[in-house]
Amino acid sequence: MFIDTLTAQVFDVIVAINIIVGVLIAGRRFARDLGRPLPDDAPEWARARCKGSTSATSTSRS
User: Fold this and answer.
1) Residue 24, class by beta-carbon neighbours within 10 Å (0-12 exposed, 13-18 middle, 19+ buried)?
2) If we measure between CA atoms, which residue out of 6, 29, 10 comes closest to residue 18?
3) How far, CA to CA in Å, does 26 sit from each of 1, 15, 23, 33, 50?
4) CB 49 within 8 Å of CB 56
5) What is the DSSP letter of 7?
6) Long-range contacts of 38-47 (CB under 8 A, 24+ apart)
7) DSSP 60
8) Max Cα–Cα distance, the chain, nearest Å
9) With left for phi above 0 and alpha for psi between -120 and 50, is residue 52 left, alpha or beta?
10) pTM exceeds 0.70
11) Mean pLDDT for each 10-residue chunk of the chain (62 residues)?
12) Is residue 23 within a helix (H) or strand (E), and if so which, with residue range?
């Protein structure tokens, strides 16, 4: 029966595989979210940070 082969080591491997797959999926989703453009209703500080530090500092020094 399947339950007889489910030892502590097999259960630990199943849990470890589940954690690894979850981290891979979350990392892929995070990378895809970083590549998306900002929404139209994003605050101005987020837009300035997304454009880079050179454009934000050049407008404040002018």
Assistant:
1) exposed
2) 10
3) 35, 16, 5, 10, 22
4) yes
5) -
6) none
7) H
8) 76
9) left
10) no
11) 83 96 97 86 85 52 44
12) helix 8-35
